[in-house]
Prior knowledge:
This protein has helices spanning 31-47, 58-65, 71-82, 128-135, 154-167, 179-187, 197-215, 270-278, 283-292, 295-306, 315-325, 327-336, 345-385, 388-401, 405-414, 419-430, 440-451; strands at residues 12-16, 24-26, 54-57, 85-90, 100-105, 108-112, 121-125, 140-144, 177-178, 219-228, 231-241. The protein is of the alpha+beta class. The relative contact order is 0.09.
Amino acid sequence: MTRPQLTEEPDVVRKANPAIAIRPMAGKLTIVSRRIYNLLLYHAQQQGIACEEYSLPLSYVVGQTSSSENNASIKARLREMASTTIEWNSNPTGQPEDQEWNIASLLAAKITPARRGKPITLTWSYAPGVRRQLVEPKQYTRLLLQISTQLSLYSAAVLLGIGFQYLTSPGQLTMRGPVDWGAAVLKGQPLKKPVDYRFFKRDTLMPGLREVNESQSEFELEMLEHRVGRKVLDLQFRIHRKKPASGSMNRSHSMLDGMAPEAVPEPVNLELFEVLIGMGLRDVDADALLDSEDHDRIQKAVQYTKARQGKVDSPAAYLRTAIKHGYADADAQRDEEKPDAAVDSGQISEVSTAARLVADQMAQEALRREYERSLIARARQEYAALPEAAQADLRSQFGKMLSTARDLQSWERIGITSPPLSARFFGWIAHQGDRWDINEEQLRRWAEQKTT
């Protein structure tokens, strides 16, 4: 008996609307785990609601997600999903009195070893309370299975789903939600404390918006900030449908994500991704690096950096510098070239040593700047924790140090809401005491703490 095909089109997952903007209550999601989740959900829909468990050859999942055979990386992403707890509201009848509340992990999974001619198999299942809503959703958004492979940011993947969800709604306007709720959804993890909206907007929200608006040709997201006074309390998004290009009126469903079917990017190299994470890069930075640089060039830079471990304080900063300036490429070129006999080998060694010394100094300076930024960020946190009287005293002390009439007028009128004066103010706080007297030992300890 042939299984029914529950999705009308190939490679299109019907994602239940509540599963698009997931707010984890525990655990953390990454862009890679979200890709794997969509892949497994698609195949669960193909296998049908009659199944309580779903299975695929593990090699297939690795091949669809990664350009390298790395089962351990898939296990790490499965752990992320299994440890991520979400809340889910559902209503089987549509009546208010039948509203149901569920709490569950994203999925449960196991890997069975090869036996009796069968390959290594990944088997997964969903919590009984949400399985039907996931596999046979009544209200859903159609997404191409490959839709997230072109994105490097988790926030962009979430915003892309939200955009398609509300693209066909009459008002093309999303629900209005608190900033903290939006931060948890777009970061893929619960918040330990109220979010600082300025940093959330700068580091998560705006990069995600830019990427989602540039990655597809269907719509553009506009952010709406709802304020009380100067403080942003709620966020909302308006979806503007982009004008179709000429000749695109008859395009098929395969253009759901604004890409032609043959333009689907290659899967991410999970093995190299894990190496970059192990060297101290954040998930977002590692994914962006893999998306923007040649993988062979990254691999050479990784080997170049590992050969110098113990000599540099921040492998992550050194790796970025090595990639940017092509130190590994220069080393390889020097190895391939045979110097003329007339050239002194001591001169070649001296040039090579000087180049490495410059690279080490640049990496050290990049680490120092990163550490200084962390001191200023800590100064902001310490200031926010002070009583109002102590804050006012610091603002008064800083105001007395301003020398120009323009700065004094701006400080009296808008205070720390002035971006340039705010940067100077918190830099001044960070300079108090001796913590700005940075030495190499402090940098080394700080770099080690970052990677642990």
